[in-house]
Each structure stands twice: as structure tokens, then as C-alpha cells.
Design goal:
two-stranded antiparallel ribbon, 20% helix
Length: 66
């Protein structure tokens, strides 16, 4: 994200915060982002622009050997 000029922050998120989110994803070293539709009892919207941005950032990262 830094390479794309996008700021990041760390923040605790509670169930009561979920309704204010524009979207949520699951990420790991194998995938650039998979949309999350629900967390517990709360529906979360899918934000395609956010997903595209995460995929772009993932592709911009150089590959590294273990």
C-alpha cells in the first residue's frame, strides 16, 4: 500500500463498528483479498474498488524466495 501512496493504520474493530465499514476482506500471503460478506450477525457490504486496490497492491509487491 505504501508503494501506491496509501496510508495504513492499525485499529481495533468491534461488532458495533462494523456498520460503519465500507467493506472487509480476508488476506494472507496466497491471496490479495477475498470479500467478507458477514461477520457474526452483521452483514458487511462488498466494495469492489477496495478489492481492486488490494489486488493492485499485491501485484506491485516484488516476489521473494523463502
Amino acid at each position: 500500500m505504501q508503494r501506491l501512496g496509501i496510508a495504513q493504520r492499525t485499529q481495533a474493530v468491534t461488532l458495533s463498528d462494523l456498520s460503519s465499514l465500507k467493506g472487509a476482506v480476508v488476506m494472507n500471503s496466497w491471496t490479495p483479498g477475498i470479500a467478507v460478506h458477514r461477520i457474526g450477525p452483521v452483514s458487511v457490504p462488498v466494495e469492489p474498488t477496495f478489492l481492486e486496490l488490494l489486488h493492485e497492491a499485491y501485484q506491485a509487491e516484488p516476489l521473494e524466495s523463502p
